[in-house]
Amino acid sequence: MKALHKIISSVKPHFEEGGKLAKFWVVFDSLETFTFTPGHVTKNGSHIRDGIDLKRTMFFVIVALLPALLFGTWNIGDQYFASTGESADFWAKMMIGAVKVVPLIVVSYGVGLGIEFFFAAKRGHGINEGFLVSGMLIPLVMPVDVPLWMVAVAVAFAVIIGKEVFGGTGMNIVNIALTSRAFLFFAYPKQMSGEIWIHDVAASKAGGYLVDGTTGATALGYLASTVGEVVDTPAVQGVMSMFADGGMFSLHNCLLGTIPGSIGETSVIAILLGAVILIVTGIGSLRIMGSFLVGGLVMGLIFNLLGLNGFMTLDPLHQIVIGGFMFGMVFMATDPVTASTTNTGKLIYGFLGGFFSIMIRVFNPAYPEGVMMAVLFMNVMAPMIDHYVLQANINRRQKRLQNI
């Protein structure tokens, strides 16, 4: 490490003010601070009061995302070979998945970091670290068949409108990754309608067809079709049988993640591994995760008691392991910039986030992924929640002083 530090120190004067490469200072600074702790402090936005700085914090979040990323990559290949009826080993499935996933990650980081470099150069400050995580989260919440140009447009919208106009990392009021998904959901609803790629042109040609691929509905897509239907009709019963033991969306399959869905959201086990990493390192809030989980279970139980359609009859535990609920709970709701910061506020914020996630997905099938809307709504409400929590504490202290 000493040798690397000497090399960096020797070239640093060229990038400082007055050097021939001064206009590329933001690029050098981002690389230097990625390898060594910077000698400057945060002046605005999010602050990390710990033994590690913001960049190292973001690195641990990336590590926590790796189980979901790797499983999602494998699952794409598994879904592909299942649709063709072929058998394949682990690496063949990973290769098929990588062909789909890697371009999404490259586009996400390429567009996002390019925009951040531009704004950093214009404003004369170093590169912020926030997009290290957002750049990975965005592909993981996307359907695997989303066109790359759509990802580029969504990333540009989220970074510019969702973050840079507010001042950059630590100043945004809503989660950047969910902002990109919401943009695509409203701008291109057909591509975000709850169906997912499971087949591609190679298999189509082998079968004598010339089509790009086939799609199949996700678990939430099937369940949305039961809203407004009588529970005991054959169509509804047919859908619900898919969620019984042995069905495509059985509790076992949903926990493991061998089902169609967005890249990083299918495997509850992989997501929980990431949750453990975040909690152990002190980066993720256990209060938010726990209360979010309880909120989802409570809403699921209420729907069970009502039982007005097939979607409502789904077991509460089954409700929280399908769709993006668990991924949103672990990686979206816990965003320290957009979540509540007071201890009591975190409990309220998390509970309502989980509660509304299940409510939205069942009440309005036009939004099959309720966690997206719920977390974005709670992002906006977080400052108000913290305000009233702090005000309540002030009022209690004033009463104690009056009684002395």
Question: How would you explain this protein's 3D organization?
Answer:
- The chain is an all-alpha fold and 404 residues long.
- It has three domains: 9-37, no CATH class; 52-218 and 260-280, no CATH class; 285-394, no CATH class.
- Helix content is 64%, strand content 1%.
- It has 18 helices and two strands.
- The protein has helices at residues 2-15, 25-35, 54-84, 90-123, 131-140, 148-162, 176-187, 201-206, 219-224, 234-241, 251-256, 268-280, 286-306, 310-313, 316-320, 325-332, 343-363, 370-402; strands at residues 195-197, 215-217.
- The chain has a two-stranded antiparallel sheet.
- Helix 3 (54-84) packs antiparallel against helix 4 and helix 16 (325-332) packs across helix 18.
- The relative contact order is 0.10.
- The model is unreliable at 197-215 (pLDDT under 50).
Briefly, what is this?
With 404 residues, the protein is mainly α. It contains 18 helices and two strands.
* Principal-axis shape: globular
Strand content: under 5%
- Compute the gyration radius: what is it? 23 Å
Helix content: 55-70%
Tally of individual domains? 3
H-E string: HHHHHHHEHEHHHHHHHHHH
Distance between the amino and carboxyl termini: 60 Å
The spatial strand order of the largest sheet comes to 1-2
In this structure, how is the largest beta sheet organized? 2 strands, antiparallel
